[in-house]
Amino acid sequence: MGEPGRPIIQVEGLEKTYLTRTGERVKALSDVNFEIYDSEFVSVVGPSGCGKSTLLRILLGILPKSKGTVLLDGSPIEGPSNNIGVVFQEPVLFPWLNVFQNACLPIRVKKLDRALYEERSRALLAMVGLRDFSNKYPFELSGGMQQRVSIARALVPDPPVLLMDEPFGALDALTREYMNLELIRIWEESRKTILFITHSISEAVLLSDRVFILSPRPGSIREIVKVDLPRRRSLETISTSEFGQIAKFIRGFLGQGDGEGTAVL
Ligand SMILES: Nc1ncnc2c1ncn2[C@@H]1O[C@H](COP(=O)(O)OP(=O)(O)O)[C@@H](O)[C@H]1O
Ligand SMILES: [Mg+2]
Fold first, then answer.
1. In-domain check, residue 135
2. Position 126 in a domain
3. Residue 107: count of CB within 10 angstroms of its CB
4. Residue 154 to residue 164: CA distance in whole angstroms
């Protein structure tokens, strides 16, 4: 798993310039080039404001690019696709729907076969450890449990690609660690291709096959670091010297200026 095979996402010469309401041009991404392979886990780290969320929104097909090529499985991304799921930092659950109903939302939105995909929602809720919480409402769940509902929901349409934008950033350190281990398990069981944005270097190293380091805005790929630590990884992985060396190497590119970048390790 995660060995270079077929590229599923290909980005070439990607550039994004925002035009603000006051007519100012903000270049967020400049000449971004990379490929992500089928079943690979890639993290993206970089200073705040360097264009990480911009990149994710372009891949998601909800934000137009200014220049370049962005391909999903060989075809240009031109709008939201059933082949890409997304998890944002905030769980965005509907408070008046219970866990099961929230998880089933894509069935209505994407007009999927109800019986088939309700079954899948149940299986996914079980996979994220929420089998007994289907009838609960979001306010009855912890932040980590709410985020697990979001992850299950993103997987309901069975997209081959999952994009995650700092999904555990709002969680306390212990819950975050637990969610990292959960995500490793989910990734290994579901064999998705995952692009994971984080500003935690340790999270990136623990989870990823490769880490893309972005430069300050306008973001471009500054370095790609291969993480060849053995799988399956666990909390013990974090205390190995190999882990420490890779994390240190990555931190060297990010410097001390970005307070967020060093907050979690
Ligand atoms: N809609 C927008 N209009 C103008 N500028 C934007 C808009 N969205 C983001 N930006 C700017 O683009 C840059 C990159 O933003 P973003 O992709 O959110 O960074 P990151 O996720 O890495 O923190 C920032 O300078 C941000 O202020
Ligand atoms: Mg962001």
1. yes
2. yes
3. 20
4. 10
User: Which ligand places an atom closest to the C-alpha of 50?
Assistant: 1
- Per the structure, how many domains does the chain have? 1
Structural domain harbouring 100: 91-158
Kindly state whether residue 134 falls inside one of the protein's structural domains: yes
Asked if residue 240 belongs to a domain, the reply is no
Tokens of 40: 């690979």
Q: How far apart are CA 141 and CA 125, in angstroms?
A: 14
Given pLDDT bands bounded at 50, 70 and 90, which one contains residue 265?
very low
Q: Measuring from each residue's beta carbon to the nearest atom of ligand 1, which residues come in under 6 Å?
A: 18, 20, 26, 28, 46, 48-54, 217
Residue 167 pLDDT grade (very low, low, confident, very high; cuts 50, 70, 90): very high
- What's the gap in Å between 127 CA and the centre of ligand 1? 34
Q: Enumerate residues 6+ apart whose C-beta is below 8 A from 92.
A: 150
Q: What is the pLDDT of residue 202?
A: 95
Over residues 205-235, the pLDDT tens digits come to 999 999 999 999 999 999 999 999 999 899 9
Which of 241, 240, 246 lies closest to 223 in space, CA to CA? 246
Number of H helices and E strands in the chain, helices first, is 9, 10
> What gap in Å lies between CA 167 and CA 91, rounded to an integer?
8
Confidence category of residue 189, pLDDT binned at 50, 70, 90: confident
